[in-house]
Specification:
Blueprint: H1 2-6, E1 17-21, H2 25-38, E2 44-48, E3 51-56, H3 59-65, E4 76-83, E5 86-91, E6 94-98, E7 101-105, E8 110-117, H4 122-144, H5 152-235, H6 237-256, H7 262-298, H8 304-368, H9 381-387, H10 401-414, E9 415-421, E10 424-429, H11 431-443
Antiparallel strand pairs: 1-8, 2-3, 2-4, 4-5, 5-8, 6-7, 9-10
Length: 444
Amino acid sequence: MIDFLRGQKMSQSQENTYRLPAPSDEEIVRFFASISKNYSSAPFNVVIGGVTIGHFTSIEQVKKANSIDLSTSKIIFGLSMEIGSVIINFYRRATIFGKNGITYDLSGFQNEIYIYSNNHIQENINIIIELVHRVEKFRENATSLLPRTTTEATLSKLFAEQIRSLSDLQKKMLRETDELRISNEKAISLRRAELESDIEKQKRKMLSELETEKNKNKAEDRRLSELQKSLDNRSHMHARRDMRNNITSELRLRLQKPSVSEEIKSHRNKFSTTCLIMIAVFFASFVVSAIEFYNVTSIGSQNTNVIITVSIRLALSFFAFAGMGFYFLGWLRQTHNDDLRTERDLERYLYDVDRSSWIIETVLEARSKESEDGKQAEIPSEWISGVTHGLFAKSEEKQEGDKAMEILASLFNFSANAKFGPQGPEFELNKGGLKKLGKAALDD
């Protein structure tokens, strides 16, 4: 007990607070007066209405200070007494210690006394133990003095009746709950059946509408397919498109491959190796001749024939080395230019195929339409010259305008049909047109 009290803080807490039934003013004043008498008439303060009315040591002094009958009244809100450094307090309230802080119950049914010390020396601890013992005695007496309005038998009977009543109420609630559950389950089952029936009806209706829409779409697809087939067959668009696609596909595949074959590349590598070896040999001969010429001139030889021979050898080796080097560099440049020109010609040819197909489609479409006066529409020659300029021309020579014109004339004269559509220009050539087109290309 002493160790516990030494660990207490100097304030109110759950451990040093004692609740008791609300005593009358006379009972609580007598309790404090008895403590005062035991501890050398230590005075105690009396608080009524939030105001301290004085310091007293006996109940007679308190009675003289006011005219209230203390035996039945409960107007004293607080009493406080200090014994050394030990303080004992009484309040007409109940302190509630919660997680969110302290609150107070002022209902008047419960009051409280709490004791704390400002100095935990042995003497104070003994005083606290004595005060706690007195508070426990006072609380037991206050509890035993509560009025008894019924006997134990009456309480047992009342308790049994309450238990029976609660049991009957429980049975009634369970029965009503079970009946309500059964009723709700039946209603839910009926509602579920209705909803499932409605869903099934809606599903059949939607499937029927979907099937009708599918049939309509199939009929529309067949009609459009027949119309597209009729248009394709009438204008021969599919043939021209296939031919253009085949040509452009082959050209694109060719552009993805190296500019020369592996065999030509092997020959080029052999030729380059031979040239490099010859250059190295001529360079070595030049170095040896230079060293020999230096040695002959440095010793001051008087043999003119030797000096002339060495000089000629030095000059020949230098010109051979320089000539071979320039030749090899020229050959590399020419080879690179040829490869670049070949690749560029293939790309240009690919674009010219699409370009010529577009020209043919445009011309044929223009010829198929009539002007306002009912005559066939004429194509301006200036437009033909502009769009065919440089068509199928090679990069190493300037293409004359009449070459492209002859090719297009051959295409126009011998094409079966042509059209420019959303999938690109397509054209169809008969056998005679193909021959003349090939001949014109060979002439170029």
